[in-house]
Amino acid sequence: MITAYHRPQTLDEALALLTQPNTLPLGGGTLLSQPTSDPVSVVDLQRLGLDALRVKGNDLEIGATCTLQSLLESEHCPQTLKTALKLEAPINIRNAASVAGTLVASDGRSPFASMLLAMDAKITMVSGQTSVVGIGEFLLTRPRALITHISIPLNTKTAFEFVSRTPADKPIVCAVLAQWNSGRTRLTLGGYGKSPMLAMDGTEADGLDTAAQNAYHEANDEWASAEYRMDVAATLAKRCLAGLK
Ligand SMILES: Cc1cc2nc3c(=O)[nH]c(=O)nc-3n(C[C@H](O)[C@H](O)[C@H](O)COP(=O)(O)OP(=O)(O)OC[C@H]3O[C@@H](n4cnc5c(N)ncnc54)[C@H](O)[C@@H]3O)c2cc1C
User: Ligand 1 center to residue 99 CA distance, Å?
Assistant: First the structure.
């Protein structure tokens, strides 16, 4: 339950408020506004000008409060990321939910987080000082700091494949492949667990299906067995390789 609401005008003001106990940044509020028994103070980020989308060299810098829908509608958003965003949430939620809030609240079923992990996104955060961490470290440690923006590379080829219960559901298994001109190839799997999984980060795409299979050997839950996910992950990884663009 939100018991105190702040709307700072500057980043410094927001950071000072966030040092208080039980105080969290408010992005779109789609999750934070859900009823809970725990009292929480929120710091609304909407006046901080953190919603811009900028191309910087080979990267797209996505402001923390940019909504999922604004990102999806951007001419700079890679087509595969658009597909993942449509699966992440229905349009009413996409119009309110921010990219940072979605990443912080994400679990292994998140197509958005799976895409960011494959693209080796960089997360810029402020907590006392500014730091930039790779998405892999971010998902592992889930630091409690204010995210100001997320950068993704625009010079990669990507592919996204998934299976889900219905075409609009979050995937039971999804595979994302990103490949750089250097040959660097990253494969991530989503659809299971607390965070998406990095199945491969190599210099070439050999052994992609085996890596996918191995990564999901314990991916057993109420949605699907590990055997099913292993088979599907290997097939999706091969489809990704065939469909890279
Ligand atoms: C009815 C309903 C129920 C939902 N239930 C769940 C659920 O149980 N689990 C789930 O994963 N998703 C759930 N969602 C999905 C949720 O809406 C998405 O995760 C959404 O994308 C969150 O984005 P937001 O900007 O609205 O986040 P918010 O609700 O604003 O914040 C979500 C989390 O992110 C943090 N945060 C926001 N911005 C920043 C920032 N810039 N830096 C650091 N931290 C930040 C907040 O402090 C909070 O912890 C639900 C959605 C709805 C409508």
Answer: 9
Give the pLDDT confidence of 73-123 residue by residue, as tens digits: 999 999 999 999 999 999 999 999 999 999 999 999 999 999 999 999 999
Report how far ligand 1's centroid is from the alpha carbon of 104 (Å): 7
Report which ligand 1 atom has the smallest distance to the Cα of 68: 21
Phi first, then psi, for residue 190 (nearest 5°) are: -125, 170
Query: Would you place residue 128 in the very low, low, confident or very high pLDDT band (cuts 50, 70, 90)?
Result: confident
Residue 245: the pLDDT is 86
C-alpha to C-alpha distance for 25 and 125, rounded to whole angstroms? 12
Whether the CB of 66 sits within 6 Å of ligand 1? no
**Ligand 1 within 6 A of 147 CB?**
yes
Domains of the chain: 2-44 (3.30.43), 53-153 (3.30.465.10), 156-243 (3.30.390.50)
Tokens of 77: 């958003």
Q: Give the ligand 1 atom nearest the CA of 45.
A: 41
CB 172 within 8 A of CB 111: no
Contacts of 114 (CB under 8 A, 6+ apart): 84, 174, 176, 188, 189, 190, 196
Averaged over 159-183, what is the pLDDT?
95
Q: To 10 degrees, the CA torsion angle through 175, 147, 45, 34?
A: 50
Nearest protein Cα to ligand 1, atom 6: 31
Q: With a 6 A CB cut-off, is 97 part of the ligand 1 pocket?
A: yes
- Whether the full predicted model's pTM is greater than 0.90, yes or no, is yes
